[in-house]
Amino acid sequence: MKTILHYGLVLLIIAGVAGVGLSLVDRITKEPIQAAQAKRLEEGQKLAFPSASSFGELKKVETEGKTISYYEVFDESKNVIGYELLYQVGGYQSQIKVLSGIEPDGKVVAIRVLEQAETPGLGAEVDALPSNDTILSAIKGLFSSKEEKSEESQIPWFQAQFSGKTPEDLIVVKTKDPKHITALSGATITSTAVTKAVKEPIELFLKAKAEGQL
Amino acid sequence: MSLLKEFLKGIWEKNPVLVLSLGLCPTLATSGSMRNAVGMGLSVIAVLTFSNIIISLIKGFVPSKIRIPCYIIVIAFLVTVVDMLIAGFAPELSKAIGLFIKLIVVNCIILGRAEAFAAKNNPLRAALDGLGMGIGFLIAISIIATIREVLGANKWFGLTVVPGWDPIGIMILPAGALLTFGLVMAVRNVLAQRRAK
Fold first, then answer.
1. Both A76 and A175 in a single domain?
2. Do residues B174 and B28 make contact, with C-beta atoms less than 8 angstroms apart?
């Protein structure tokens, strides 16, 4: 009996101190963590609909048993000029979260992969920037002061392919074809998953919209 | 054993990855690129050093029968702190290795050093042991990551090494991790045997 009390007390003290410590650290980090998440979403929203001036609150619509989360996209005079759909599908080894900016008729403006943890070097290349940086040029860059970063190089080439396509065009092909989506080499599953994460919500969303559910 | 030796043993003589074969799960998982490997290595150094110090401090207070749950609480506490700090102040790093940070809780290097060393030595020695073991882990994982990233993606820290060369894709996959790990371990053994002669 005495030992049980002793052990219990020791565990209680250790767990208690750890708990208090964690709540203190949580106080310090809560705001930066939320700010970082909000910033990531905000950057994604801008990239997925560059001509937008503001975005609405997150809304949800249900159709065919699936829930689509979306934001309304406004121009300067608060007219709805399009939507951004948030959707998640399973990739090769992770959940892929995609934000797709679309015009009211379903044509893709731009997409942004918000979260993924696919195979580095293969599937994770959906986030690869069209970088020509080599070690040599990076070392040279250290010694020259000018910064050369164009806006275009901020959009990964795989994701850039979706811009301007209609849902019917969103088919993954393995040979280069500007009309469809060219798969990443060695990562067909990831490529298909991202394409599905764009195409499926657009089709469901248009259907819900036609039914007057918005 | 002198204090300097206590620190150095983790780097070569008792390298946690290459000699003690501890912490292989995070080694194999995060050595696909230098950026992930260094992030993981630095997190392990921080957690290992502090967990060793704390466990050495509370060793007289913790009854030996319930030492394992006590150590786990201390380690889980530290890992959660590191996880929250990284998520708050280095969101890009958190995006890349956030998943692995949580795995440090069950990283056997940390529990292993707590049990085998920190629980029997004073806080200063425990801190040096943790620091040395952590640095040994960082060095081992960096060597493996360099080989894998250069051969498997033709990159180092995300920068192209040889323009125009088509890399060997398998090196970036789990099979490449096992191959590289085995070869690095073999090279270390050969060097150690030569030195012993």
1. yes
2. yes
